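Field reference: sequence -> structure
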Amino acid sequence: MTHFLKDILRQPVELQRTIELFAGTNGAGRATLEAAAAAIRSARHVYLTGIGSSWHAALNVGAMFYQHAHPVYLLDADELVRFGAFPRNSAMIIISRSGKSTEIVQLARKASKAGVKVIGITNVPESPLGKEANHAIVVPIALDHAISVNTYTTLALAVGMLASSVVQEGSSLQGLKPSEKGTGAPELKLRPGKDSQLAESLSHAFAEAGRAIPAWQELIAKSVWLKPHSAAYFLARGSSLGSACEARLMWEEGVKSPASSMGTGSFRHGPQEIVNKGVRFGIWIDVTQMREQDFALARDLRKLGASVMLIGQKLPEDAGDLVFQLPAIPAGWQSLIDIIPAQLVAERLAGLSAVDCDTFRLSSFIVEDEGGLLPKEAKNSEDSAAKDAASE
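Structure field:
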């Protein structure tokens, strides 16, 4: 069993631990989360940022802010470091699993010097981000072996809980009320004091996702969707857009194969010209928005010879070549579990492609310097070789 798969399998438990940390009056992280939410609500300008997998978590949670008329500036950490100037009365949510990436460290210091209230969300309390932040929200889980799995979803959950507290403009987390119409999945409702319902709903979804993993693995083992060295495109909307981007990154890091990701709507404005026989598509279906239109897109892609994987709630079994049914989870929170099937596919495809998904050839686990791709040892070795050749 790969380390990647081991990390995937423990994910429902880690998500449950995280919800217990921040939900309810006895949650150890509750007070810090509420203080951070108050700082964000009092700010005139709010930034939401990260880099790598953490940036994808920011994309997912950004939709929650926008859907509740609480806009945030979404820009990745490197762009903010190089090109951002921050107005007064600003707050910045910075997400980073290690809290040590060079862009994250530089950005936190730059924001602090500008008088910005920094909310750091990280898995490592003693990190530079944790120390620099005005409010450090720490999710103390076991770090992943290589590819970000638990560090991705647990940080996304923590940021989601923070966003939920901010947008309901109250001191406690918003609860949930089952929907009486639509798909049957519960919807987010602004009901202060009912945060236990949110915790229960998410906990149930995490447990059901964990129980679904063996069936998902059986589907994957039998599916012809998995084909080594094929072109892959990942499409999503709203709170799952980060899931599509994260899947693309897993293909690049774990399968060692190029891939693309974008909004489903954006794909229909030009990029569809690449569609031909053999191209693999992964499409995340939102629980409330544009479902029939996205099913129509999947049908057309298949008619054109492409192979389609669908991930979502209450999907027709024949809507794709590989269909993953998700358990009910509130609208806006689906991204916490809709990445799991894609993780399982990436791990299996790496094996079929005869590549090591547990080892990075070029990338560091934590990028603490700037410029180039090769590790310092390799650069020094090449420089020495070049000098020796020049002297001969």
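Note: The chain has a mean pLDDT of 89.
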